[in-house]
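Researcher: Sequence recovery benchmark, item below. Answer with residues only.
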């Protein structure tokens, strides 16, 4: 399932954890600001950085309403 997909292996952050952190955020206007908020909550993309683009894509999809998690 999409919710259980591990996005950040370094910090063990799943798709669902990113979605939850994003939904706690009240700023849905800027993907980069939302990314910083999600990163602060989940610590994703603070290890090797390999998940950076995946996290941005997930945030963009959720903000655009393409998320069905």
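Model:
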């Amino acid at each position: 399932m999409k919710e259980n997909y591990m996005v950040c292996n370094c910090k063990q952050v799943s798709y669902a954890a990113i979605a939850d952190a994003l939904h706690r955020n009240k700023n849905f206007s800027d993907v980069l600001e939302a990314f910083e908020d999600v990163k602060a909550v989940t610590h994703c993309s603070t290890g090797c950085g390999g998940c950076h683009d995946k996290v941005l894509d997930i945030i963009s999809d959720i903000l655009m309403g393409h998320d069905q998690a």
